[in-house]
């Protein structure tokens, strides 16, 4: 089946640092999404990308849809403790089904 | 408030018993989904429904069943045939397939 690659599984950063996360696929997709999940809650949509090369910002978050349509990255600038959580990338594939990466767990040290 | 409501939040069951998880949405969304989440596994699709009275198997449907008798409701039954049912279950919906998907707060199922 379709597979999205997110690595590493965990990231540890200091408060105030910037962090970048990547998501790659061997297949082409037309929609890339980034979600954040806090402990014990459902994922919440952060940014949606619909056009190759598109760069979109949402506050301290910036995401880009790769020009090859096989990857995307998410940047968080000036991290704060509430940025802690699991960050998932997702793509819309055949039959409009959403496929998720395995997620990256972000820890922020005060 | 509009949204997706899952209940119960926490559920404990003995092995061999069927259990049904509730999912209700008042967003007037046509499509609804059930995902299972295990540590380090991401989210895996169990079943989805694009319209009332219709549903399709996802990637890990074995041991689960669903119904979609009303637009607002998409209950998931975890049957005794599911070999490893302990997990975090997430319900989601969108206006129509391909649109942005929104999640409920999840239900923790523990089978002992």
Structure notes:
By secondary structure, chain A is mainly beta. Chain A is built from no helices and 11 strands. In chain A, the strands form 2 sheets. In chain A, strands 2, 4, 5, 9, 10 and 11 form a 6-stranded mixed beta sheet that branches. In chain A, strands 1-3-8-7-6 form a 5-stranded antiparallel beta sheet, with no helix packed on it. In chain A, a hairpin with a 6-residue loop joins strand 4 (32-37) and strand 5. By secondary structure, chain B is mainly beta. Chain B has strands spanning 4-7, 10-13, 19-25, 31-38, 42-51, 54-57, 64-66, 76-78, 87-94, 102-103, 107-111. In chain B, the strands form 2 sheets. In chain B, strands 2, 4, 5, 6, 9, 10 and 11 form a 7-stranded mixed beta sheet that branches. The interface between A and B is medium-sized, with 22 and 26 residues.
Order of helices and strands of chain B: EEEEEEEEEEE
Number of strands of chain A: 11
Indicate the multimeric state: heterodimer
Coarse structural class of chain B: mainly beta
Structural class estimated from helices and strands of chain A: mainly beta
Ends distance of chain B: 35 Å
Radius of gyration of chain A: 13 Å
- What is the count of helical runs of chain B? 0
Query: Regions of chain A with pLDDT < 50 over 5+ consecutive residues?
Result: none
Round the mean pLDDT of chain B to the nearest integer and report it. 92
Give the CA-CA distance, first to last residue of chain A: 40 Å
Order of helices and strands of chain A: EEEEEEEEEEE
Number of strands of chain B: 11
Quick summary of this structure?
With 110 residues, chain A is an all-beta fold. Chain A has strands spanning 4-6, 10-14, 19-25, 32-37, 44-49, 55-58, 61-65, 71-76, 85-92, 98-100, 104-109. Chain B is built from no helices and 11 strands.
């Amino acid at each position: 089946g379709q597979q999205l690659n997110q690595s590493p599984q965990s990231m540890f950063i200091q408060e105030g640092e910037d962090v970048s996360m990547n998501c790659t696929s061997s297949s082409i997709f037309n929609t890339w999404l980034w979600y954040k999940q806090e402990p014990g809650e459902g994922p919440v949509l952060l940014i949606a990308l619909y056009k190759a090369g598109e760069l979109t910002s949402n506050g301290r978050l910036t995401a880009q849809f790769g020009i090859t349509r096989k990857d995307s990255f998410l940047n968080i600038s000036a991290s704060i403790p509430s940025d802690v959580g699991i960050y998932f990338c997702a793509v819309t594939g055949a039959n409009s089904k959403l496929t998720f990466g395995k997620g990256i767990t972000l820890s922020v040290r005060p | 408030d509009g949204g997706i409501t899952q209940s119960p939040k926490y559920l404990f069951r003995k092995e061999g018993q069927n259990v049904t998880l509730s999912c209700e949405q008042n967003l007037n969304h046509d499509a609804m989904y059930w995902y299972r989440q295990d540590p380090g596994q991401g989210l895996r699709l169990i079943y989805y429904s694009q319209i009332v009275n219709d549903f399709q198997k996802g990637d890990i449907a074995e041991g689960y069943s669903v119904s979609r008798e009303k637009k607002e409701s998409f209950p998931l039954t975890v049957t005794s045939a599911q070999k490893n049912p302990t997990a975090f279950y997430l319900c989601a919906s969108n206006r129509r397939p391909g649109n942005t998907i929104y999640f409920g707060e999840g239900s923790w199922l523990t089978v002992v």
